[in-house]
Q: What sequence folds into this?
């Protein structure tokens, strides 16, 4: 009988504002942690690329301790390749931030294919890059890949997306915690969790 009498107390605690908000916070932290692990556990090049003249891609900046540390800013990256993997040319379309802005579905599919090919190349222990340094001849250089990206290298846009996602989820959890008996609060919380997923996937 004593054990049976404890069930209502447990259920009451589980439906308390503190427990509800704590559960939302824990879930949000897990999602943010998974996003961060995914972001840093990708091959790192240590360069920032921008569109150059014509259909070329140019190095804007180079990390001092990155795989391309011996390449100067202003160098044109023509293509990447690896042993037994076809060489893949890089164009400005391959470095756009928002591929959903491409005018046609065929161009979007081409973008996805190119990204998959480039990822396969840079995921090798060693690969090569065909480059055209400023005022120098085109040459091929060997690059040793870095499997993990430094957290400090993550762009401000990433942290902004994570912050917005976290804030949205916590707002939904806060409303739900103090309006547990209202159906509208449940709908708002579900929308907030959906927003969390969509914002983190965009990070």
A:
């Amino acid at each position: 009988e004593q054990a049976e009498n404890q069930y209502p107390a447990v259920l009451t605690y589980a439906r308390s504002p503190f427990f509800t908000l704590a559960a939302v916070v824990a879930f949000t932290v897990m999602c943010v942690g998974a996003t961060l692990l995914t972001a840093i556990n990708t091959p790192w090049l240590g360069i920032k690329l921008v569109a150059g003249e014509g259909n070329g891609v140019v190095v804007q900046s180079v990390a001092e301790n990155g795989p391309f540390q011996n390449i100067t800013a202003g160098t044109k990256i023509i293509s990447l390749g690896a042993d037994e993997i076809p060489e893949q040319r890089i164009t400005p379309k391959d470095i756009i931030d928002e591929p959903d802005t491409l005018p046609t579905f065929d161009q979007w599919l081409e973008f996805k294919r190119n990204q998959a090919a480039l990822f396969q190349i840079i995921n090798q222990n060693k690969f090569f890059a065909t480059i055209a340094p400023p005022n120098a001849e085109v040459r091929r250089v060997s690059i040793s890949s870095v499997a993990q990206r430094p957290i400090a290298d993550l762009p401000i846009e990433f942290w902004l997306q994570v912050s917005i996602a976290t804030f949205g989820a916590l707002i939904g959890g806060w409303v739900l915690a103090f309006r547990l008996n209202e159906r509208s609060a449940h709908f708002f919380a579900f929308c907030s969790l959906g927003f969390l997923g969509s914002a983190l996937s965009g990070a």
